[in-house]
């Protein structure tokens, strides 16, 4: 420690460019079966999960409101997706014929739309111990 302090009024933190994200967790109940698993795999049978979905958005922090967007906007964007998934057999949902966590996360990634933000990542948890996270690839 040199004990050197920045000059008064020169807060180094204020000069650090920040990346800010907000996240919200959602749930739905659904059944599925995995049609492409090896014969005899337990997931070839229809079974159900209490899915937990975490959606993370990235964007600029509004200078007046101090937020990226109101969490309520993310909640509103989720509602039509919830309507398509909740209490469904996911295999019947167009685009989810093989409803693995990976493909469900990608399906959601293509559909979440909150103006003024980009989707940073989506996490799909089928069980307490199993989850998948997708991110936008760089470039
Ligand atoms: N990479 C993936 N592997 C599996 C998926 C998947 O989507 N991606 N899905 C399943 C099944 O849907 C299964 O219901 C969930 O998997 P699993 O963690 O094996 O579930 P269990 O509760 O039975 O786990 P245990 O820890 O063994 O009790 C399978 N694999
Ligand atoms: Zn399953």
UniProtKB/TrEMBL annotation:
Task: Write out the catalytic residues in the record.
Answer: 43 (proton acceptor), 87 (charge relay system), 126 (charge relay system)
As cofactor, the record names: Zn(2+)
Aminoacyl-tRNA synthetase: present as a keyword of the record? no
- InterPro entries from the UniProt entry: 6-PTP_synth/QueD, 6-PTP_synth/QueD_sf
Pfam families, from UniProt? PTPS
Task: Choose any GO biological process term that the UniProt entry carries and state it.
Answer: tRNA queuosine(34) biosynthetic process
What note does UniProt attach to the cofactor annotation? Binds 1 zinc ion per subunit.
Q: Which residues bind Zn(2+)?
A: 32, 47, 49
The main enzyme category here is lyase
One GO MF term attached to the UniProt entry: 6-carboxytetrahydropterin synthase activity
* Entry keyword annotation includes Protease: no
Enzyme Commission identifier(s): 4.-.-.-
Q: In which pathway does it act?
A: Purine metabolism; 7-cyano-7-deazaguanine biosynthesis
Reactions catalysed, semicolon-separated, are: 7,8-dihydroneopterin 3'-triphosphate + H2O = 6-carboxy-5,6,7,8-tetrahydropterin + triphosphate + acetaldehyde + 2 H(+)
**Top-rank lineage group of the source organism:** Bacteria
UniProt keywords (A-Z) are: Lyase, Metal-binding, Queuosine biosynthesis, Zinc
PANTHER family the record matches: 6-PYRUVOYL TETRAHYDROBIOPTERIN SYNTHASE (PTHR12589:SF7), PYRUVOYL TETRAHYDROBIOPTERIN SYNTHASE (PTHR12589)
> Which family would the database say this protein is a member of?
Belongs to the PTPS family. QueD subfamily.
This protein is called: 6-carboxy-5,6,7,8-tetrahydropterin synthase
Query: Which organism is this entry from?
Result: Corallococcus aberystwythensis
Give the gene name: queD
